[in-house]
Amino acid sequence: MSIKIPFFKKKQKEEFQGELENVPRHVAIIMDGNGRWAERKGLPRVAGHKEGVHAVNKVVRAAAKADVEVLTMFAFSTENWKRPKSEIEFLMKLPKEFLHVYLPEIMENNVRINTIGEFEALPEHTKEAIQHAIDETKHNDGMLLNFALNYGGRFEIMRAVKQIVNDIDCAKLSVEALDENLFSDYLYTNGLQDPDLLIRTSGEQRLSNFMLWQSAYTEFWFTDVLWPDFDESVWWQALNEYQHRKRRFGGL
Ligand code: FPP
Q: Is the CB of 80 under 6 A from ligand 1?
């Protein structure tokens, strides 16, 4: 029997205990609109990022409850280095702040943390905080919470191509053996299923260099909600709509 996730009223949703069907296995989120959220409130842009941290936890909690297997959140792109230094410094402190507050709940929810992107180029303090969380959560076998940090889709593809050329050069790989599956193994997302659902907030409708290879057959869902206002009810709206999509992967 297919149990649809209706537009629950808040109370019903909290009480919902049934099995969810047709839940996306991998959800990717482009968290956008922090700056506009702050500007609308007459606050500095970074206030939006700070508030956005709490929205991250709301979604992690809701996704774990929905039995999503992988949640990938775009926290910092390779292009975000173009922002003012003060904003970058602020953004780089957020993983530590998030983990300081929410790591206990993440442990309770059996969530494992990992990252995709050029991890080594992050500031030491950011790396330390994240590495600590990766180590702490490595035995959890529930949802994977994957932070895309210093991540760019084109860079990821170029990096894969370079490694492939290198492996061919030293005879670890033959050109004949290369196919789409093997190519995927060279991406940061090696071993992960492609995202089933990609959510972008704030009314923008573009990929912004996020998971270019992986999103070939992903369902997109856009909302005008600004990231700091994203909560469980918006999450269920996205899931509800996903459940009604017909995925054909190019077939009939
Ligand atoms: C885009 O909004 C958002 C970002 C560049 C940063 C997203 C980061 C967080 C929400 C917090 C991350 C938290 C953890 C735990 C790593 P924008 O600044 O581009 O908004 P705008 O388009 O309104 O200016």
A: yes
Q: What percent helix, strand, coil does the chain show, rounded to 5?
A: 50, 15, 40
146 is an active site residue: no
Q: What is the pTM of this model?
A: 0.92
Report CA(66)–ligand 1 centroid distance (Å).
24
Q: Report the alpha-carbon distance of residue 147 to residue 74 in Å, rounded.
A: 6
- Which residues of the chain form CATH 3.40.1180.10? 22-151+194-204+218-245
Residue matched to tokens 């995925």:
247
Domain 22-151+194-204+218-245 has CATH 3.40.1180.10: yes
Please confirm, yes or no, whether 32 is among the known catalytic residues.
Answer: yes
Per residue in 108-154, pLDDT (tens digit) is 999 999 999 999 999 999 999 999 999 999 999 999 999 999 999 99
Please determine, for residue 15, whether its predicted confidence score (pLDDT) is greater than 60.
no
